[in-house]
Amino acid sequence: MSDILLQGAGVETFYGKIQALRGIDFEVHKGEITTVIGANGAGKSTLMMTICGTPRARAGSIVFDGVEISKMPTHEIVHLGIAQSPEGRRIFPRMTVFENLQMGATVDKLQHFDEDLVKVFKLFPRLEERRAQRAGTLSGGEQQMLAIGRALMARPRLLLLDEPSLGLAPIIVKLIFAAIKKLNEEEGLTVLLVEQNAFHALRLAHRAYVMVNGKITITGTGAELLNRPEVRAAYLEGGH
Amino acid sequence: MEYFLQQLINGLTLGSIYGLIAIGYTMVYGIIGMINFAHGDVFMVGSVVSFIVILGLGITGGSGSFMIILALALVVIIAMLIASVYNWTIERVAYRPLRGSFRLAPLISAIGMSIVLQEFVRIAQEGRPKPIQAVITGKHELLHRLTEGGEFIVTISNMQILIIISTLALMAIFTMIIQRTSLGRAQRACEQDQKMASLLGIDVDRTISITFILGAALAAFAGMMFFLYYNVTDFFIGFLAGIKAFTAAVLGGIGSIPGAMLGGMVIGLIEVMWSAYFSVEYKDVAAFTVLVIVLIFMPQGLLGKPEVEKV
């Protein structure tokens, strides 16, 4: 059994009066890819944001590497070693690709910037070609690469990836998932991956959760979930 | 032609002062989307503090030039510090608690803060105008020509040289900070997406505070220059200068720092040129008319952000 890097227990999050997370328990183990799949609006992105403290959990605990983070401000949480490539990518459109990557290295205080830049460019050569370009003018796939690259510049111990395949051409999706796999296998990077594209995510994942209406309903290894009839019916075969 | 040249010099001087104040408006708008209506009064505080310190140090035009430069450097540092403390405090007590409230709330709060600053200075320092003898004197003849109307001399005073040169230097330094340093990057990041900036480890509250401090420092610098240029200040100068600088910021494209600088120069020039060729009484009308025209035909301002982003 590997060590637990991130553990949530009874996590509840509200947007005003609307409850988005209804008591979530989850574990992310060191060196593994953990995935959360589920339909639109199930609360997956809320979970990712709650881990980072924005919004903050109203109840429950989130422990990262022995530190209770559920009451900490966002910028302090990420300084512990959590980086996120969020839903909708949220690259800085009026900054260049290079500046976006510099922003990513904020947590690292640009100490290993040159070294990490080479790594990110090796992973996504397209970014190197476009380094001086304003990020807002990149294609969707390139923006996604930038969002992941930016997160990697922080040298995270835990990488949160929210819907990296959303709205991308299948060939780009393949490329991005290959990159995630490579990071996990070669660098031992721990990844928490949220996806609607359940098939890709489950094939990659060591550990998987299915989320419905703010709750975890099914838990297992990626391979187990791939073979569960109810998962196949709901998430892999068009929902029928 | 000589007359025009003279007015150009005068206009650029005034425009420099507006430009420096305008940067504070535009930066704050850029980062938290509100107009800090108290900013003109922070400029006023800088100006009045300069008056107090200059008087306290006993600087006069008769002091040696080396002493004057040394003393004014001290004055401007004190003025910047105090104005920064004011602006920082205003943000902490009057704006930050209202963040996330409805959009008009901080605006109303800002107008309130403007009145607070004015009244505070009026009561603490009395309402009378505060004159001094010119500290920086002397001027240079640039052109000397006999025309049919008599002789016309184009001059530039040492004070004007000081204002224009120091403003350009300050703007250059400031642009460097915004474009090249991690502080400037953090600021631009917060401007574009605060939540994402915090996800990357930026302390957004701290960045906003620094924005208020930087804006106040520039305004205080402008406040001292304004005082030394006109040799008088009072508790009310922030109102009109503030509105003009705000106009400059909108004219240049609110949120754009080069736009604020350019807008300041344009407003200064319009005001001076209108006074010179048409009527002094209507100079403010002219300046604001230009604003209206620009807003109608170029709502994003002269250097406003082009919207060419893919989502």
What is the secondary structure topology, with strand pairs?
The complex is a heterodimer of chains A (240) and B (311).
Chain A: E1 4-15, E2 18-29, E3 33-38, H1 44-51, E4 59-64, E5 67-68, H2 74-79, E6 82-85, H3 97-104, H4 113-123, H5 125-129, H6 140-152, E7 158-162, H7 170-187, E8 190-195, H8 198-204, E9 207-212, E10 215-220, H9 222-227, H10 229-236
Parallel strand pairs in A: 3-8, 3-9, 6-7, 7-8
Antiparallel strand pairs in A: 1-2, 1-4, 4-5, 9-10
Chain B: H1 2-32, H2 39-57, H3 65-95, H4 104-125, E1 130-131, E2 139-147, E3 150-157, H5 158-180, H6 182-192, H7 194-199, H8 204-230, E4 232-233, H9 237-252, H10 257-277, H11 283-297
Antiparallel strand pairs in B: 1-4, 2-3
Notable traits:
heterodimer, A: 240 residues, alpha/beta, Rossmann fold, 6-stranded mixed sheet, 4-stranded antiparallel sheet, 10 helices, 27% strand, B: 311 residues, mainly alpha, ABC transporter involved in vitamin B12 uptake, BtuC, two-stranded antiparallel ribbon, disordered C terminus
Tell me what the structure shows.
The complex is a heterodimer of chains A (240) and B (311). Chain A has 240 residues and is α/β, with parallel strands linked by helices. Chain A has two domains: 1-81 and 185-240, Rossmann fold (3-Layer(aba) Sandwich), CATH 3.40.50; 84-156, no CATH class. Chain A is 38% helix and 27% strand. The termini of chain A are far apart. Chain B is mostly helical. Chain B has a single domain (2-297), classed as ABC transporter involved in vitamin B12 uptake, BtuC (Orthogonal Bundle), CATH 1.10.3470. Chain B is globular, with a radius of gyration of 20 Å. The chains are: A alpha/beta (240), B mainly alpha (311). At the A-B interface, helix 2, helix 3 and helix 6 of A face helix 6 and helix 7 of B.
